[in-house]
Amino acid sequence: MRQLIINKNPDKNGLVIIEGKDYRYLRQVLRVKTGDMVNLRLPDGTLCGSTAAKIDEKSKKITLQLCASIAASSESSITRGVQASELEEQAAGGDGIEYTLFQFIPKPQKMEIIVRQATECGVKNIVPVISDYTEKGSVAAFEKNHGERFERIVKEARQQSGSPVSTTIFEPVTVEEALKLWQELAAEWAGAAGFILSERNDGCKTVRQALELERSKQEGSGPKNIAIVCGNEGGISPEELELWVKKGLFYPVHFSVNILRCETAALYGIAAVQTGV
Hints:
Layout: E1 4-5, E2 15-18, H1 20-29, E3 37-41, E4 47-56, E5 61-66, H2 71-74, H3 84-92, E6 98-104, H4 108-120, E7 125-130, H5 136-145, H6 148-161, E8 168-169, E9 173-174, H7 175-187, E10 192-197, H8 207-217, E11 225-230, H9 238-248, E12 251-253, H10 262-276
Parallel strand pairs: 1-3, 6-7, 6-11, 7-8, 7-9, 10-11, 10-12
Antiparallel strand pairs: 2-5, 3-4, 4-5
């Protein structure tokens, strides 16, 4: 775990009480002991170092004391991987782009994989889309598990990856509603670009070609809000592809690789676009 995400701020003395599932994770999985360092992601997104000041086995609570600075705790933190100071440097020096994934709803298990991987990649918005090839049972299953289960998946993915991005999962929408939502999101930024992953190569561009076109339109600055559309098990119908291209001004992108499962395609598409920018 690279960070512990908490939903409450420290008190005036810089203390945070950890209990419930987070207590069990710190004690049983990470085996935190008194004096160990833990990196905390606060509700406002701030990343802080903390020390396990007290462990109460009887009430099953851990009291964490915020450190004077992140640097003071980064090297000795019990959390693994990239430490607090490095995470802040990455966030400050990042590309500043907000990513949105419009995912045509697949079977439940695949949707969970996609949500986890997109969160780890720093995708800001995940929008489930009811498409021509979406099964009714998959929509029902998503709506049933949309709340607590997906919130847990997002939290675990952020904690393991150290992502500073607070990923949001939207309610399921139709294709028309998804296009309207994208127009609203794009309006909040000076530049926006959309990519739709296509199984067909007709009229498609590479990610690099599409980004070069966007940079030329925006005088070299490039887009600050990027959307990626990925189909489900059935792919994307020709009618839907045409709608996204004409109404949403999305660039159809075809990858010259083997046929990918939808959960692989989503991750591959996100990685390709992030690498391209």
